[in-house]
Amino acid sequence: MGVVQDMTATLVLVVAGVLAGMLNAVAGGGTFLSFPALVWLGVPPIMANATATLTAMPGYMGSAWAYRGDVSAEGTLRLRPIVAIAAAGGLVGAGLLLVTPGDAFVGIVPWLLLAATVLFAAGPRLLEAIRHRGSGDMGPVPSGLAIFLVSVYGGYFNGGLGIMLLAVLGLIGFTNLHGMNGLKNALSALLSVVSVATYAAAGLIAWNSALVLAVATTVGGVVGARYARRIRRTDLLRAGIVAVGITMTIIFFVA
């Protein structure tokens, strides 16, 4: 019976990881699969959140490297202050997760998934509205505060982080979409490193599950990147991912 359970758990992680990697490579939203899969297998929600963040880290690093030539400073903040502020925010967010009681986090999770789903669904229109608004000039203090707050969120919970970072970068004056994507990926990688280091030090990583999920997510990312250019109806794909997010949100609300 134990062998069957182990095989089932491995199969669930492989399928969830491959699909999550493919979604992240094409449009994002892989967290809607990897996090619930870990919880469904019995990993405590806080540990599942930490483990899902770890398995997303290689994808962020690969994407950041691919965009490395496009990243440049825009707006009122230079790159070094942005990176430093993001690292500090990530540490605060990870620290908040460590002191959050398990029962309290279980109650927060549905709301986090709901927020991530709404952000993912509204992402294209939100970014379009920011682009129409033109370059922002919030000043260094408000810009730094915006980066800090979204980084705290990213250190606490990974879902919906990408679109939040893009929105904030647009608000503080970034206009080059390739540069925004590159910096978004770099900051996501940084926040993952900072968060995972904190989680690992606190013993919150389910390493056996993380290894399987990380390999599967990497494979899914390679496959997704290969076929991403062939997808013509990304609106239908995004609608499907939103449907998954809504379903997972409802399940966590009623569970």
UniProtKB/TrEMBL annotation:
The organism sits in which domain of life? Bacteria
Name the GO cellular-component terms.
Answer: plasma membrane
Name the InterPro entries on file. TM_pro_TauE-like, TSUP
Q: Which UniProt keywords apply?
A: Cell membrane, Membrane, Transmembrane, Transmembrane helix, Transport
- This protein's major location comes to membrane
Q: How does it sit in the membrane?
A: Multi-pass membrane protein
Cell compartments where the protein resides: Cell membrane
Q: Does the keyword Membrane apply?
A: yes
Spans traversing the lipid bilayer: 12-40, 46-67, 79-99, 105-127, 186-205, 236-254
Give a yes or no for keyword Transmembrane in this entry: yes
Q: Which family does it belong to?
A: Belongs to the 4-toluene sulfonate uptake permease (TSUP) (TC 2.A.102) family.
Q: Return the protein name.
A: Probable membrane transporter protein
Species whose genome carries this gene: Wenxinia marina DSM 24838
